[in-house]
Design a protein that fits this description.
The complex is a heterodimer of chains A (about 240) and B (about 425). Chain A is an all-alpha fold and about 240 residues long. Chain A contains seven helices and one strand, in the order E-H-H-H-H-H-H-H. Chain A has helices spanning about 45-80, 90-105, 110-130, 140-160, 170-195, 200-225, 230-235; one strand spanning about 10. Chain A is flat and about 90 Å long. Chain B has about 425 residues and is of the alpha+beta class. The longest helix of chain B is centred in the middle third of the chain and has 20 residues, at about 215-235. Chain B folds into two domains: about 5-145 and about 155-165, Chloramphenicol Acetyltransferase (2-Layer Sandwich), CATH 3.30.559.10; about 190-420, Chloramphenicol Acetyltransferase (2-Layer Sandwich). In chain B, strand 13 and strand 14 (about 385-390) form a beta hairpin. The chains are: A mainly alpha (about 240), B alpha+beta (about 425). Strand 1 (about 10) of chain A pairs parallel with strand 15 (about 415-420) of chain B.
Chain lengths: ~240, ~425
Amino acid sequence: MPFCINCGVELGADVGQCPLCGYAMPAAGAGKPLSAAGAATAVSGGGEERARRTGKLIGMEILSVLFATADSAVLAIDFALNRALTWSLYPAAAVTALWVYVLLMLSVARRPLKTLVISAAALLVLLAGVDFADGVLSWFVPIGLPISLCALACIGLVIAAARRPVRSHALIGVAAAACIALESCVIDYAVARFIGAKPLTWSLIVAACMAPVAVAGLFHHFVLRKHFAVDKYLHF
Amino acid sequence: MSMEKAWVPLDTVARMYPSLVGSESPTCFRISAVLNDAVSIDALRAAVADLTLRFPCFRYRLGAGMFWHFLQRTDERPHVIEDRGVVCRDFFPTRDEKLLWRVLYGQNRISLECSHILTDGYGALQYLRYLVERYLCCAGILPQSILPEPDFSGAECMEDAYTRYFIKDIPHARQPDRSYQPAAQPLPDRRLRLIGGEINADSLRKASAQADLSVTQYLVAVYLWSLYCLSIKELPRPVRSIRLIVPVDLRNLYPSKTMRNFFAPVLCELLPFLGGYTFDEIAGDVKNQMAREIKPRFINLQISRNVSITNNMFVRLIPLILKVPIQRFLYLNRGMKAASGLLSNLGRVALPEEIEHHIERLEFVTSPSHILKTTAGVIGAGHKVVVTFCNTTADTSVEREFFTFLSTRGVRTRIYTSESRE
């Protein structure tokens, strides 16, 4: 049985190094990775993870070069033709927003909340960039910002409904119907205010259409669903 | 079967745990039986299927209500999956509407991973005992069943025993302040380092008797000594106390057949800022503290605190969507920071000789977190006691001090290791 001369403890038969101090066993076991000895739970440490990270880093670098090339090409062509930056600012803003978005998404893969926040930020940056391309912010604050925020809140609501521990398709439908009604109202109100028209006209019809859908979904979820027990959900 | 309810509220302690389920869940624990021979997967699946109806108290998944989570009865089949070495890390029973436990198989290892939302170490151990026995029968190793028919279907098995023994008019236990935390940085990718020591039970009992302590008290004293040695290396002038959580099975103090959580954490404390310690002083302190704390009158304080919080009308009426982040914040920032380590001893598992003969050893792993960085699980079977340290950092100082100390006291220990990743 191997024995660590540093720690004075006996080691498992197939332990290559002392797990306590790292002393390499001079016998056949020496040089083996620090893994899994007596346990079938053995797993090679972070080699696979490191390879995955390196691959991701290389991918991000390649994408950055491609996006930077596209930006530079568009700006250079515009400048060569007009001796100023005019139309190229719009595609450049879009490409830059997409660039930032892709890099951030790669860095937070498999994290839904961060993905949503980054998508929101990227969308707002894109809209603000396109609006600001001519030097002033005109439609972004009164129209772009409220509609975008409302749309993102709606997406978050639907995702939250879909990720509930007790998943219900009816409840997801209710959330989607409510979101359509809300988004319609926000679009109607924001655009009407911007152009000076009467707010909340057609959106109320959309909301009225969505109301029965939502009521039917709620009825299905809370009344028709089997095994529903009010005391279970409301016990406190 | 007739006693199975469609849903039951969580027990007093479990009400906190759903908020803690995440990438590094401190609510999960694992008990493993390492057999002498390779595991037959078909026999294991047959054994799990056979036990499913005999353990109705395990046929629940987590549901979410308006104010609290609850256990919802389910007919879902238990998961029997291959052990890929990811210990207590990729188990999200709240996310996928799964059962709150699962069985894993390795080369010669049968493991049960279980969430504290459902049961504690006692309940999980009962299941594992029967699982190993049924497995040996299904694999044709045992000719017939040896253990008595399990009887875990009564209403008492699903009771919240804390509320039964709650005494209304006594004060609550005081929330301890922040304790010393080892400074080591966490391993990358939320990996865990497991270092286990297979200890000869006779030599451990002998060393404990020499120190005039029980085996648990002795292991707690050695663990505290290890933390103390690390703390004086890191901080020559310590400012915080060193505190160890020792969960105690309350079924030994309060008669109950419950298969749900029924334990209380006892705190063993050193105050290094008042002066240096020798091991003998620590041993004396541990003996006095544990003897004092593990008495019904002091345990009642803990029960009183837990039950009073969950009975508080204000707490009860907070919607779950707000309750979860508040509970998580309080537990991680107050509860966990109050301890420097955890040692959970499931004790010696009584198994018939015919079964013990086929088991190399049992292992018990409790999941640590980025705050409570090191935990130790102790379990014994036959002539072996296995102490498994689970560590979120690369620093093995505590484990090294622990096992080398035992060796210097003549306790025969064989070390094995494994590293687990996300």
